[in-house]
Fold these 2 entries.
Entry 1:
Amino acid sequence: MSAQLSIQGMTHYFGGLRAVSNFSFDVPQGAIYGLIGPNGSGKTTTFNLITGIYNPTEGKVLFEGKDITGMKPYKIVRSGIARTFQNLRIFSNLTALDNIRIARHYTTKSGIASSILRLPSFMNEEKTVKRESAALLDLMHLSSRANEEAKNLPYGELRRLEIARALATKPKLILLDEPAAGMNPKEVEELMSLIVRIRDEFKVTIFLIEHHMKVVMGICEYIKVIDFGETIAEGIPDLVGKDPKVLEAYLGKRGA
Amino acid sequence: MPNLKTIKLPKLLIFAAVLYAAIEILYKTDLMNGYILHIINQSLIYVILAVSLNLINGITGQFSLGHMGFAGVGAYVSGTLTTLIFKLSPSAPGGMLVFIASIVAGGIAAAIIGFLIGFPSLRLKGDYLAIVTLGFGEIIRTVFNNIDYVGGPRGLLGIPKFSNFTVIFVAAFLTIVIIRNLIESSHGRAMLSIRENELAAELVGIDTTKYKVLAFSIGAFFAGIAGGLFAHLLQLAHPTQFGFIKSVEVLIMIYAGGVGSITGSTVAAFALTFLSEGLRLGIRFVADTTGLPIGGEWRMVIYSLLLIFIMLFRTEGLMGTKESRLIKIGEAD
């Protein structure tokens, strides 16, 4: 397995505050890779740097060998990196189906004129997009919600809808920002098998941030632990779980 | 098997044809006087303005306060072409074609200005964008006020009266159909996603800048068309017709009708234009019959009160974001 995503010497400051410090790591192709760390340790910032929401103060992001540092977010998405958000960012007043269809937009070819004239080529493309989007909803067990406005969906379904939307952009790498947040134990179980299934069926690499230890230890093949923007441990789940520095960061110093 | 499009599109067409025929018959048989027809014409022009502003404010979620500035560009460009360059008279052979070409040229000019203004300013959001568009709208107005060639503060006078009910009706109908079709396409959904959550839109691969500028330019194009029709209906183009207050009037229409609803914008454009005129007559009638010392100035008081009531008791506007079944296109399966 070769590195699909490669972060090289990435540092990011917010004003004088150093959020991420000299980060370097590789996410291998096809892996389920976990990034964990306490609140404020720079996890989401890392995602924002990869997806182009922020430009790193220093360092580079390579995706499949190509430098994507400083590219516009929508171009990074088009190169094959999709993401979900810690605080959901759903198109709430649109239907579940439209949420998915919007993510397919950049792959459509019909121009403005053929869309307005509703030429056969446009109609065919619309049908294809609709069919494929419906299939994604089906995969996420959201078929019955297709024509429901997203704001009426319960939280767990919205989380799945957001993953489906990310998949609709036809990514090669998906960044999941705390996918299990706010889920009950049963939903967490389902989510874990879903993530593995997505990786296997869509042949995508999964890179996730998570607080939920069960998820991280259960499905990640490789884990990186960060605190205050620096790496404190990394490796396979069994070893990381026993690392004293990790326990300290999460549970506090013994006797403190 | 015929797809739904071939069934649904004519429904709106049939409705429009019946409406058109009814108004024509009423007018030709003198059941409706020219004054009413004039208000209908004005309403239809406001339909174009409201539906196109709705594309910018309601669908794409940007906040433009300079819509009438674009109408001004259309009015002055088309007016200059027909009046000063081609010196058309309504009876000139082929005049109608030159007039339509001039109107379209006015729309294109407005779209170009919209593009030039939109590109730098659409990186601003909300209130800030509103102020910038307000400023640009005023600049456009001031420019016309200072160009002697188009009459300066006197306005461009003697514009031939080419706008008639048929032309305006067809233009309004086409505006509704084109913007409706645009909204119900992948491009339209891209615009909606910007309104819903700009960052998420960007992160599912939407070029948000492109679609904001596009919505702005298309909106400006139709505003330009409306401005041209206005100029050739009232036979003048005057800087005060295209000021900030006039932009607010159109803005009120889309809020009263329901932001994001073409049906709402259309209904509100008619309702508010007729209301405004109706109050003029109503107040005169009340003053005449009761002898109370009330004049035209009360019109805006009552008009404003009615708007406040709409907003208090139906905040989402008359239609909300809903569309009439006439406007909606069925999904193609």
Entry 2:
Amino acid sequence: MTDERQEEAGEVVLRLTDVVKTFPGVRALDGVQLEVRAGEVHCLLGQNGAGKSTLIKVLAGVHRPDEGQIEWLGQDFAPANPQAAMKAGIATIYQELDLVEDLSVGENTFLGHEPKVFGFVRRGYMARHTREILGKLGHAEIPTRRLVRALPAAGKQVVSMARALSHDARLIIMDEPSAVLAHDEVGNLFRIIRGLTAQGIAVIYISHRLEEIREIGDRVTVLKDGRTTAANLPARTTPTRDLVSRMTGRTIEYVFPEPAPSVSGAEELLRVEGLTRTNEFADISLSVHSGEIVGIAGLVGSGRSELLETIFGARRAEAGSVRMAGKALRPGSVSSAVSAGLGMAPEERKSQALLLGEPIYRNVTLSTFSEYARVGFTNVGREVAEANRIAERLDLRPRDVRRAVRTLSGGNQQKVVVGRWLLGDTKLLLLDEPTRGVDVGARAELYKVIRDLAAQGVGVLLVSSEVPEVLGLADRVLVMREGRVVREAPAGELDEETVLDLVMAGSLQVEEVTI
Amino acid sequence: MTAQTTAAPVKEPEKPAAEERRWWRVDSTDGLWRNLALVGVLAILIIAGIVTKPDLYSDGTWVRNNIFTILELASVIGVVTVGMTFVIIGGGIDLSVGAIIALAGVWSTTLATQDYGPGGMIFCALAVGIGVGVVNGILISYGRLVAFIATLAMLVAARGLAAQISNKQTQVSTSDFINGLAANDFLGVPVLVYILAAVVAAGWVLLNRTTFGRRTVAVGGNPEAARLAGINVKRHTLLLYALSGLCCGIAAIMLTSQANSAQAAMANLYELDAIAAAIIGGTLLSGGRGTIIGSLLGVLVFSTITNLFAINNLSTEVQNMVKGGIIVVAVLIQQIQFKSLSQFFAKNSKITTS
């Protein structure tokens, strides 16, 4: 099927030749070739820092390339600004959706080019037109006057796409659209994408998930260090090994380090009993032993992130208790959790964990700088030394700990967050989606770090929506659905299908489960 | 200072930058350039003074005295601005500083308080300042009021209380010690200037060298990250407003000694001067970034303008118009300097390569 589709695919709409873009000190794009045809889903693969984001921004008119040629619909293309790119028919859906939360669905769809007469917005026309577009996307049920704030993540994404279509886009760039979606919503996204390509619209699809690329993609272009290392590979038939080796120069995908031999009779670190928060999760009991990795598998919305935050004291439990080494933690107090030896790497790195403008070392020591201080005076020399030690241990790149965290790639930012908790005497680490937005190579490193920690006796409670990750990394697995633990078993006794079954059954049999 | 004296116990694989560091170094060079720009503005203002009044500037003693005049003019607002800078870096705003000064000034000059002598008056002013600051802090961090609203309410209420206590009368200070602070010199330098220098120095150390300062930047830069790192954001926010209140207490004593009296209308609109000075000094209104030196320079720019207009016998109306312009221009210059300049160079290098 792949091959036929390629044969019948439309003419080339976009062609990039030797595109170069430099920023002070960095050659972000260093000779990119890309060819996109009408009606195809063209996947871009590459590690963090490979230049994907810069490439998107060049196409979207945010940056202008220094060298090279961009040909769009047979003509030279040099958009002066994002509006010009939009007008030319290239729409971009960024990872962080750029919607105005307090405007309605219709207003967001036509943001910046509202239909108007004498400066008055033609509301009726706008609503009609929005409904039409939403209908095309298969989501006519979204009310056009609803505030975007009230929509779930998947709904917001549909609105972003509606906006792209309102411009008569002929090329839609999607930057990790599935990152914010739960499993069943991804299927819906794919249905929409197929609908778009059937109308001859080209899609550039960026994702870290190879299985998605296999499912939706037609052709793949691989970037590494700002260069195209492979162009126009067939998405379905190219072996994973090939794709990964072109991204990394290595031939690995998910490499999980060997689990450490389980220590029998290890002391119990964390004990959670009957933890409950209305509408989030109910009656959760679990325990984590020293040196043990416990994984929680569950969809977005299954209550797993909320559970982690509640254990950490960032949310206050309504019922139940959290005990650390036998001592009860004060509910709703992060300080109490931290001083008991808990550490957490939250789901949203940028908004929940990092001071982006501050140097790396200050981010690494954010929860320990008081311990190095003497009578309230900070000890910068010691902090830098400790941060260097962490940077060495986690292979942080670049190694200069005085750089602002803003300048690091996603994987390295995550290392900073994890590294923060390696400094203190953290006994139990709560990791919420530790590899989200992290490329394959850096993932393997993070897995190794997590295993090493466990081998040193640290307990780990890990949440991930990627089932293979949970199964490959954890010693024991809890499956969560609709705010409850539906299965607990050693990782060896579960396989991917079983877990996926358990995770997704919820929507069909809610009544049975909750009563 | 203490930062560099302790040897790190762990092996350091590579730390090239650490050896070159001196105690006065701050990590970001951004602030340094910003401050140099402000020094440039100051230089321009002084040159304007020399050009307009060459006769005065040819007299050495007059120049020396005029410098002290400018510094004295800057002293009260400078002390307030140090506290304000902390609050703004910590992600808040304190609109009540002028009102706190009035309340602290009036309370410390009531007949009952003056009975306790200058020590009692100083204690009273500082206690009132801290007390009001703590109330602000509690309302904001534990009552979850928006800082703007809580301190706006305090602005109205504190001045009301000051008028009530003083019965709308001007209360004369009979303490020679207090009055002498503004009148006397020590080693040829006015005492008020020493107080300003001490507060600025303490503020610099507090912001750049202590855990308190580090927490301030963290809490203002990303409150959620600070909270999840185990920092007690609420308590720290409270402390920031208490610190601002303390600075107001000190300023109240200074202002009382300048006027030899206190009244409910004193320190009017100081909140605006302090915020403007901090902003000119490069403090980010959304929190997480700012420097004490920058704020001090901001205050000095304002007092130098005031002085420039005074020696030229120009009206305060014109002066206010110029001040408004200066705020806009100073912030614009900083933006040009740090955003467009790098883009400008980037563009130029592109031209040369293509």
